[in-house]
Every structure is written in structure tokens, then in C-alpha cells.
Known about the structure:
The protein is mainly alpha-helical. The protein has a domain at 8-72. Helices cover 57% and strands 6% of the residues. It is built from three helices and two strands, in the order αααββ. It has helices at 13-41, 45-72, 74-83, and strands spanning 102-104, 110-113. It has a two-stranded antiparallel sheet. α1 runs antiparallel to α2 (45-72) and α2 (45-72) crosses α3 (74-83). The longest helix has 29 residues, at 13-41. The protein is flat and about 50 Å long. The model is unreliable at 111-118 (pLDDT under 50).
Amino acid sequence: MTEYHEPWEKLPEAVRDVHRALTSFKEEIEAIDWYHQRAAMCDDEELRAVIEHNRDEEIEHATMTLEWLRRHMPHWNEQLERYLFTTGPIALDDEAASPDGEKIDPGGLRIGAVKEEQ
């Protein structure tokens, strides 16, 4: 079964590559979930270590694909910079401030520093 919403032959090659990356990313995430569940249920310590190793390799693959997406789809970069490696709440509302104090509009654009209430 194909998952294309437009005729594949008419899609630009760059769009096809993004589709390939997104499909691979989904598959890696699914594999991580499977291995993680199996490791959690495994009573044999040595086998659990092997399964956890497999899971961690899938995390590596997913991360590599995510980096490719970041480099080829600019909005990925904007959102990853907004949310990754921060310590504040992950689910910021549309009127929330970014970690550096700038207000963020619903599209993720920084629109100036938020003034502190006096």
C-alpha cells in the first residue's frame, strides 16, 4: 500500500526524499516502541540487554533521520530549536515566552522580548 496523496511521478524529487525520510522516521519510532516493550517484559537479563541495545540503535537511526529532516525542511529546525534541550514546560501555549524571554506567535516566530509586568 502506498501512502502518497499526490501522484508519485509528479512529485518533485526533493518532496519524494522528504517522504522517504518521514516514512523511515515513522518506522524507526515504531521499532523503538516494539523493542522498548519487549525489553520491559523480558525476564532474561542477557536477552534484555540485547533487546535494549537493538532499541538504542533504532534511536540512533531515528535521530539521524531527524537531523536530515532538520537540514532539509526549515520549519523542523525552527521547532527543534524551540523545544529541544530546554528546561521549561514542553507544551507552551501560543502566547508563551520562549526560554530566552521572547514572545512566540502561533507559528513559532519570535516577535520581540516580553515586557515584565511592573
